[in-house]
């Protein structure tokens, strides 16, 4: 099977493009906002499926540049979905937990049927992209807190800060579910092979704050944590983030069975896989 990945320069896109049977296009190679370039890529590669991992994912930048956020995250995915449907190409459009906001109840998870509550320009634009893609029979998969142990991910940067002995403030009151990009890529390519269209969630089980997550990784990797200080999300300023947005992925795994580890088990597997 051939899968074309848009946005292969990003964290998830890199993980997808590293898998067999995929071809990745970075933003430099293809601007998803250029309809002619998108159509030409679809006609050149003739993929069986497309995964759209391209996005303006910098939450604070989206607040500063709302028109650009809407173009990249909402308008362009709608045009891509239309082009894929015209060519009978299956489209997986990647969205985010940030379109939701759960009740502040430990253990609560958000189902695909829960009403969206986007709180930032980024979240509203991503919700717009969901609706545009779904209108053209695409698959929309919400993911959350994707990471790798190297590169530009939040976790990799946090660990590098600690290894350098620099101070690091970690939020304790924003709760989600850390998801290794490599694990997400494997599951998403299962979905690309076929199945129903519509909206799905994909994440491991369990929940963590940024503080829990980084401290667990540091402990597993014997990274010193003396410079860590807990903080609250409001202390950092910037665009609004959901305080609790743990995704219920049960529907995804009913359709595409596979391993759904706890976030801690997924972290251990990622450490083993990466050789860090």
Q: Can you characterise this structure?
A:
- It is a single chain.
- The protein is α/β, with parallel strands linked by helices and 276 residues long.
- Helix content is 41%, strand content 16%.
- The protein contains 11 helices and 12 strands.
- It has helices at 11-17, 35-45, 59-64, 66-86, 121-134, 154-163, 181-192, 210-220, 233-236, 250-255, 263-274; strands at residues 3-6, 22-25, 49-52, 90-96, 139-143, 146-147, 168-171, 175-176, 179-180, 198-201, 208-209, 228-231.
- Helix 8 (210-220) crosses helix 11 (263-274).
- It is globular.
- The model has no long low-confidence stretch (mean pLDDT 95).
Which key phrases capture this entry?
276 residues; alpha/beta; six-stranded parallel sheet; two-stranded parallel sheet; globular
């Amino acid at each position: 099977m051939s899968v074309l990945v848009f946005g292969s320069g990003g964290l998830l896109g890199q993980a997808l493009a590293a898998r067999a049977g995929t071809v990745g296009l970075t933003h430099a190679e293809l601007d998803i906002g250029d309809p002619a370039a998108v159509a030409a890529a679809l006609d050149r590669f003739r993929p069986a499926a497309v995964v759209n991992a391209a996005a303006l994912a910098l939450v604070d930048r989206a607040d500063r540049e709302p028109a650009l956020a809407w173009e990249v995250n909402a308008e362009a995915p709608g045009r891509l979905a239309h082009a894929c449907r015209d060519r009978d190409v299956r489209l997986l459009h990647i969205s985010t937990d940030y379109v939701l906001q759960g009740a502040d109840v430990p253990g609560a998870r958000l189902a695909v049927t829960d009403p969206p509550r986007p709180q930032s320009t980024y979240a509203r634009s991503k919700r717009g992209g969901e609706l545009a893609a779904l209108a053209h029979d695409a698959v929309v998969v919400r993911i959350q807190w994707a990471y790798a142990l190297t590169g530009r991910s939040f976790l990799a940067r946090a660990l590098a800060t600690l290894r350098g002995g620099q101070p690091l403030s970690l939020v304790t009151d924003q709760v989600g579910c850390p998801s290794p990009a490599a694990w997400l890529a494997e599951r998403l390519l299962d979905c690309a092979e076929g199945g129903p269209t519509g909206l799905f969630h994909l994440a491991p089980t369990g929940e963590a704050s940024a503080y829990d997550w980084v401290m667990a990784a540091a402990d597993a990797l014997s990274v010193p944590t003396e410079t860590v200080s807990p903080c609250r999300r409001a202390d950092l300023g910037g665009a609004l983030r959901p305080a609790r947005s743990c995704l219920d992925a049960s529907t995804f795994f009913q359709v595409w069975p596979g391993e759904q580890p706890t976030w801690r088990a997924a972290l251990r597997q990622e450490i083993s896989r990466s050789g860090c």
